[in-house]
Amino acid sequence: MRRIIVRLSAAVLVGCGSQAKSSEDAGEPPAAVSGPKSPTPAAAAPELAGCPARAPLDEGLRQRSTAVPVPPVLRETMRSDMDNFAFSTLAGATVCVDASWMESIRDPALSPDQRFASFAWDGYESYGHVIVDRSGRGQVIDTGEPPVASPSGKLLAAADLSESGFGALNAFAIWRIEPAGIRPLTSVEEVPQATDWRIDGWAGETCVDLSAVAWENSGEARAPRGAFRAREANGWRFEPGRCGGT
């Protein structure tokens, strides 16, 4: 499934850790995702020692032998070891991400107000897109693919609907960004039989336009894309047509 690179207008971008070799090596960060402008309090360094121990992996499920490097854009807020990423919250606590399945991360970002950190990750027959909300006690969600923000920036939509089922979400989902925390609104797993699902955009705050390729056309170089929509009024379930249609 094609990965969608999105600029979020109101807020989003990565959560948890244990003991092992730590790393703060680099890679060049992408353009930052925009966010609300507000004073940023100084935060203590994250504590990997407070992150939970992870279950041992079967042999061959992880190829790396060192911690995933911490990219420069996240160096002030993130630490890593073999099994965990630790992120500092804006209040100085630590929130942890299970990194035991992850082989590498890419596209790291930190919102201008530093509330949200994010990255895409790849592992053995698996992938995802993690967002850490550093507000309050801290929160971690995995949207599978990079989410698309509504015009207000208060809602996020993600479509991780690959035929392999290797994504972390494996659904179409909507979240609401609260003053502290990100609240899930819906998760839809039953969708029309098609492939190469893509979010084409929001129509206001109550409808999402999507498109996909019919299975019988999936081998074509320029296969036609069918139009679908997910409306709040219909429980965010998929139906044929565009948001502007009847």
Secondary structure layout:
Layout: E1 78-80, E2 84-88, E3 94-98, E4 102-110, E5 116-123, E6 126-133, E7 139-142, E8 148-149, E9 155-160, E10 171-177, E11 182-188, E12 194-202, E13 207-214, E14 225-231, E15 238-240
Antiparallel strand pairs: 1-2, 2-3, 4-5, 5-6, 6-7, 8-9, 9-10, 10-11, 12-13, 13-14, 14-15
Give a structural overview:
The protein is mostly beta strands and 246 residues long. It has 2 domains: 1-189, no CATH class; 192-246, no CATH class. It is 0% helix and 37% strand. It contains no helices and 15 strands. It has strands spanning 78-80, 84-88, 94-98, 102-110, 116-123, 126-133, 139-142, 148-149, 155-160, 171-177, 182-188, 194-202, 207-214, 225-231, 238-240. The strands form 4 sheets. It has a 4-stranded antiparallel β-sheet, with no helix packed on it. Mean pLDDT is 83; it is low at 1-11 and 13-41.
Query: Largest sheet, if any?
Result: 4 strands, antiparallel
Order of helices and strands: EEEEEEEEEEEEEEE
| Major sheet: arrangement of strands | 4-5-6-7
Give the structural class: mainly beta
Say how many strands there are.
Answer: 15
Count of discrete domains: 2
Distance between the termini: 29 Å
Task: Identify low-pLDDT runs.
Answer: 1-11, 13-41
Mean pLDDT: 83
User: What fraction of residues sit in β-strands?
Assistant: 35-45%
Count of runs of 4 or more consecutive helical residues? 0
Q: What is the CA-based Rg, rounded?
A: 18 Å
User: Helix fraction?
Assistant: under 10%
What overall form do the CA principal axes indicate? globular
